From TrEMBL:
The entry's keywords: 2Fe-2S, Iron, Iron-sulfur, Metal-binding, Oxidoreductase
EC number(s) given by UniProt: 1.3.99.16
SUPFAM superfamilies: 2Fe-2S ferredoxin-like, CO dehydrogenase ISP C-domain like
Name of the featured protein: Isoquinoline 1-oxidoreductase subunit alpha
InterPro entries: 2Fe-2S-bd, 2Fe-2S-bd_dom_sf, 2Fe-2S_ferredoxin-like_sf, 2Fe-2S_ferredoxin-type, 2Fe2S_fd_BS, Beta-grasp_dom_sf, Diverse_Oxidoreductases
Domain 2Fe-2S ferredoxin-type: 4-80
Pfam families to which the protein is assigned, alphabetical: Fer2 (PF00111), Fer2_2 (PF01799)
Top EC class, one word: oxidoreductase
Underlying gene: iorA_2
Originating species: Usitatibacter palustris
MF terms (GO), sorted A to Z: 2 iron, 2 sulfur cluster binding; isoquinoline 1-oxidoreductase activity; metal ion binding
Amino acid sequence: MAVRKITLTVNGKPREFEGDPEQPLLWYLRDGLYLTGTKYACGAGSCGACTVHIEGEAVRSCTLAMKLIAGQSVVTIEGLATGTRLHPVQQAWIEEDVAQCGYCQTGQIMAAVALLRRVAKPTDADIASFMNLCRCGTYPRARRAIFKAAKRMGIAA
């Protein structure tokens, strides 16, 4: 294994990773930085429980090698709020009681935030195509939460 030093920013803080450049970002976040909000589920980038933002885009961290994010900015669910103020999507998620088991919810929230950055006035079809898989099937509540957050953010009709 070739050890490599990789610098990046995580939740606004400069970080330095030193290890296997092929290691998935997920494991650096969870085991190296103890940011356990990002979840491991499928390990294949299919479900979305591991979704984080890199340079503002939603990505699946379980299959993304550290070497591919050198110099970039990563935001996890722990970095989404501003101080003690929740992001509008997080607040709407609580108000709409979206989570059932809750395991995939951090990935769902991160996907929803990225969707609202990309699509000013999301439709049901936009939401359906952008959201992660959820075993509990709380999609109707998630959709309501996304519309509520968009309205609060001033981007919905």
